[in-house]
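Hi R.,

Here's the input for the glutamine complex you asked about:
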Amino acid sequence: MEENICYLHLSTGDRLQGKWLHQVEGTEGEMVFNTAMTGYQEVMTDPSYAGQIVTMTYPLIGNYGFNDIDQESIRPFLSGLIIAHPCKAPDPSHSQYTLYEMATKYNIPVMYDIDTRALTTIIRKHGEVYGKMTTNKDETTCIQVKDKNLVEKVSVTKRIFYSTDANFNHLIPNEKHIVVLDFGYKHSIVKTLLELGCHVTVLPYQSSIQTVKSLKPDGVVLSNGPGDPKDLDYLLENINQITNYYPSLGICLGHQLIALAHGGKTDRLPFGHRGSNHPVKDLKTGKVWITSQNHGYVIESIDEKNWEITHKNVNDQSIEGIAHRSKPILSVQFHPEAHPGPADASSIFLNFINLLTNKGEKQHA
Ligand SMILES: NC(=O)CC[C@H](N)C(=O)O
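And here is the predicted structure with glutamine in place:
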């Protein structure tokens, strides 16, 4: 028998046989699938995948390698990766590391030789599926209990300052200062804000409104992050106060938290939106953007007297964007920072910066 044979045991009772990319202990997690054809490095390093085993439906992974620039966080936080074919010799033009080197460096369990499309069919059919990757053929149990502390595992523990001028000596006059509340932020969010001439302070996710006020920001971004937004109910009062006080932009988990903090409801999608080609309609202009997405939960309802639904998903009509009718709060379910995927929706950041500049127009209550 070949030495690197391993198994994926699913909570549905299914068992799939594959091979370890490198010898690892097993792992467990919620099974999700991502349909992007490229961007596997950004997927692997997006902290929102913490606690999840990610199946890539595109068959060849690793073909242009990995590099230091495309890391979306300091390390991968996903529980495991399932692929069909690993590329062993990537195109060298952008590559500093191979998939094998990345997996061994961070000790990520990677299983290959799996029919990822068949696996995806199982996940789509059952919706909420948990899996265990192991060398053991006869394992029968796998976790079915959600980890409620995922954000704590990925958020920064100390504040981090980012500036185009690393020494803070020559800040551009009128440069905006943005606080990013870190529920598991992707570096591309900070990079986009820096490119727009902002400087940024990333704060731990549970930072109080007093801490935020002490930094005197012009606006606050609530970042993406892992897990079920309802598990963070103890943060909602604080988020309500912050978003009522500062112009705010919510992205993905941050968006769901803004909705909950303002009396909205969230729910689980049947099998999530994870990929780089999810069509989203701007309800004002009628234009459709092709967006980057990674979420399993969604806003189910929000008080439409005070909130306008600004964007909807073209495929399933789910809510993709909301804006407060009188306060400067914008919030989107998709990823305007892209990475991976298209930047069709990047104007969301410009709209947010405009809210900071025209504070007078949408005054806080
Ligand atoms: N990318 C994210 O922020 C994901 C949000 C949330 N964890 C979800 O799955 O819906």
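One thing worth noting: Residues 48, 224-227, 252-253, 294-297 surround glutamine (CB under 6 Å).

Cheers,
M.
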